[in-house]
Amino acid sequence: MAKYIIKRLLVSLLTLWIMFTLTFFLMHFVPGNPFIGEKKMTAEMLANLNAKYGLDKPLGVQYLNYAKNVLHGDFGQSIQLIGQDVKDIIAQKFPYSLRLGIFASALAMVIGTVLGVLSALKKNTAVDRLIMLIVTFGIAVPSFVVATLSMIIFGVQLQILPTISDLSTISSYILPGFALSFFPLSFITRLMRSSMLDVINQDYIRTARAKGLSDKVVIFKHALRNGILPVVTYAGPMVASVLTGSFVIESIFSIPGLGSTFVTSITGRDYTTVMGVTIFFGAILILMNFIVDVVYRFVDPRINIIN
Amino acid sequence: MNTINDTKVLEKNLFLPATDEEKATAEIMRPSVSYWRDAWNRLRANKVATGALVVIILIILAAIIGPIISPYSYEQIIEGQENLKPSMQHIFGTDSLGRDLFTRTMIGARISLAVGVVAAIMISIIGIIYGAISGFFGGWVDNIMMRIVDIVYSVPTILIVILLQVVLKKPIDSYIKSGHAPAFLNSMGVGLISIFLVMALLYWVDMARIVRGQILALKEQEYVLAAKVLGASNRSIIFKHLIPNCIGQIIVVTTLKIPEAIFTESFLSFIGLGVSSPMASLGSLSQTALKGIYSFPYMLIFPAAAISVIILSFNLFGDGLRDALDPRMKK
């Protein structure tokens, strides 16, 4: 187990390093320099600015400097928002994204599991078909479509939910949270359904029933515990999906989170911010995948035997 | 000796010619069903998949014919007809610049479909070659190639896609403007070119893994040994014997990559990184529509519905195709 964790940790660190290096060098392939958009500058002023930001040094030195700064949590200053540290932007905006992300993930986990179990237990009935129909749509319809359509219906036409959200009230979580969780929710439902159907047909469930246990005990104590395992593995991809979704959802609902900031810094070509946020998001994703992999080994010891 | 004893046991009547009756039992009653015929029959029996296929064909036809029969062109600005609601004249209405939305949506569907199909084929070719080489040669070659796949797999794709888009925009732009670029690149525009580039760079790993797995199993088969003995080169074994034998899976994965590519393109266009005006894709149309969502919600409904229907029908068709071509993979 310890060997596995160490191995997995090394791979994660390697991936993170590759991502960091890729980000750094890609950003340096951008022709021109970050100050080109400024007012007319003399060569002297440009040289001063370059010296201030260390851009006059050789690329290798810049790389090491940036790596050192990033390890200290310093991503440099934003090019667009003069005088603001990217670090501060992240610290200020990320809590919004985190709150919305946790809400959406919890929604997806809970509702997805319930719907999945329900449709497995009611296989081939109208309930199952209805759930499968909704879920098939949930997987196909992009999150920005879900977000904008639900915004038109509940925000513009019915006017019962806010269309602009700063996440200060519970009602302002509903539309963005729903839009963000629709895809993972649908995915979990499908995963849960097929895994429950798998488990229900196994021998130990027959034994449990033969012992005369009630349906409730068989389902919740015996079947669900094994059936839920695949959902654990989906936790990593779910974080990726919620994160990606947050780019569009936050922009649509004008939530002042890191996702919408990322999108504006992309369109504004704010290289330092794009770079900083990319590394930050990448680190979160890689960390989550690592945690999920390790946790999965703990909850399902059978994997160790197989490998 | 054994053999002599054995021949003594054999009796003559075992060697009589078969009667007509006996021959009839061994006769093949029906024409043998080929793999493709069998798959086609299974696919046709699947109502959902057939329905999805019909929808896909209708959408492709609409995307080809729609802009041709429409009296307006997609970039034509009709002054005095801005922000019109759907009517007989403009069945999907017009946008804030007075461009006909029906034509633009059809052009957008054309772009989205083209991106999906071209990207899926490109991804597949790269993935097939990579996976085949890795699986066929095995050993340390396989080891190194698969570690690379692992890393590409664990790197957060969408972040790299965005990053590459941001970075590639300027160089591609200056390359196009330099006049050396082929004409087709010019008409595609920077957004589309970089979408294709990033997909070619990052999205082939699934295909590579699947093909590798198949090849690993197939290369142990006798016919590969026979080909080797006959002196066939590695290349001809891979391309003539191995790859054709995993064609079913390849088709399925390629089909399922189409909606993924369309999804990615619309996502990128939606956050402003894909197709730029006056060109239109379904994602960029949705993004433009979002600005006027309070006053003109109809502008969003058509492109949004089109994306959803396209992705949904490709997903359903792909699932059906998987069940038909590879029944073992059936969930």
UniProtKB/TrEMBL annotation, chain A:
Keyword set includes Cell membrane: yes
Residues spanning the membrane: 9-30, 96-118, 130-158, 170-188, 231-253, 273-296
GO cellular component terms, semicolon-separated: plasma membrane
Keywords: Cell membrane, Membrane, Transmembrane, Transmembrane helix, Transport
KW Transmembrane helix (keyword) present: yes
Annotated compartments: Cell membrane
Highest taxon in the source lineage: Bacteria
Main location: membrane
Bilayer topology annotation: Multi-pass membrane protein
Record Pfam families: BPD_transp_1, BPD_transp_1_N
Residue ranges occupied by any ABC transmembrane type-1 domain in the UniProt entry: 94-296
Any Gene Ontology biological process: transmembrane transport
Family of the protein in this entry: Belongs to the binding-protein-dependent transport system permease family.
Protein name: Peptide ABC transporter permease
UniProtKB/TrEMBL annotation, chain B:
Gene3D superfamilies: MetI-like
Protein keywords: Cell membrane, Membrane, Peptide transport, Protein transport, Transmembrane, Transmembrane helix, Transport
ABC transmembrane type-1 domain: residues covered: 109-318
One Gene Ontology term from the biological process aspect of the record: transmembrane transport
Tagged with keyword Protein transport: yes
Membrane topology annotation: Multi-pass membrane protein
Main location: membrane
UniProt-listed PANTHER family: OLIGOPEPTIDE TRANSPORT SYSTEM PERMEASE PROTEIN AMID, OLIGOPEPTIDE TRANSPORT SYSTEM PERMEASE PROTEIN APPC
Family statement: Belongs to the binding-protein-dependent transport system permease family. OppBC subfamily.
Protein known as: Peptide ABC transporter permease
Organism annotation: Ruminiclostridium papyrosolvens C7
Species classification: Bacteria, Bacillati, Bacillota, Clostridia, Eubacteriales
